Amino acid sequence: MQLEHVVPFGRSLNEYRAMFDLSQDDLGRKILGVGDGPASFNTEMRERGHSVISVDPLYSFTGKEIQRQFDKVVNDVFEQVKCTPSDWVWTYHKSVDDLRMHRVSTLEMFLSDYEIGKEQKRYRIGELPRLPELSDHVFDLALCSHFLFLFSEHFDAQFHVTSMMEMWRVAKEVRVFPLLTLGGDSISTCWSSDSGVNTTRVCR
Ligand SMILES: C[S@@+](CC[C@H](N)C(=O)[O-])C[C@H]1O[C@@H](n2cnc3c(N)ncnc32)[C@H](O)[C@@H]1O
């Protein structure tokens, strides 16, 4: 992975709960976050005594390198958002400034936990479509947000099928969000999804 091609923005526990429809019971399950990047999901879950392992190629970089890349891209990204307000849904975040503040605080939370989390093997270097370091069926739930389907221009259908099967190999249930490409095309014709919720669930 080349860091200069990455926009290291991550989401919070509350956003993960909303995206994946996570219940209180779900939070107590053994969770794998694939492509969690600089989300504060793992950090906030640990603070609440829950168990999450996050796997992402980004974790081959240091916290300083991730922070530097964030600082490098953040102004340009939010300028683009400001120029295209109607491309965004402003129900969760109320404004561009609110969204930016949220991304900054999420990164801060992630970085405050990153080094210790790496030592504790809660943040592990790895990437789809294969997770060879993980044994079969060790997780109750695998989550993947804002990676699969979204970047369909760069990853073909075979990559997606192999990745889904790989997450299913290591977890009893897989949830992916969103079921959209970056261009806004729905992929719900390819994968079954809960009606009304833009999340796919593949249950064993
Ligand atoms: C847009 S970020 C989403 C981060 C987090 N899931 C969230 O929603 O806040 C996409 C993440 O996918 C990761 N990624 C890129 N290639 C990957 C791969 N082959 N397997 C797993 N993750 C990958 C990136 O490093 C990045 O952290």
Describe the 3D structure.
It is a single chain. This protein is of the alpha/beta class and 204 residues long. It has a single domain (3-203), classed as Rossmann fold (3-Layer(aba) Sandwich). The chain has helices spanning 13-20, 24-27, 41-47, 63-83, 96-119, 157-170, and strands spanning 31-34, 52-55, 123-124, 139-145, 171-177, 200-203. It starts with 12 loop residues before the first helix and ends with a strand. Residues 6, 10-11, 34-37, 39, 56-58, 127-128, 145-147 line the site of S-adenosylmethionine (SAM).
Secondary-structure map with pairings?
Elements: H1 13-20, H2 24-27, E1 31-34, H3 41-47, E2 52-55, H4 63-83, H5 96-119, E3 123-124, E4 139-145, H6 157-170, E5 171-177, E6 200-203
Parallel strand pairs: 1-2, 1-4, 2-3, 4-5
Antiparallel strand pairs: 5-6
Helix pairs in contact: 3-5, 4-5
Bound molecules: S-adenosylmethionine.
Residues 6, 10-11, 34-37, 39, 56-58, 127-128, 145-147 line the site of S-adenosylmethionine (SAM).
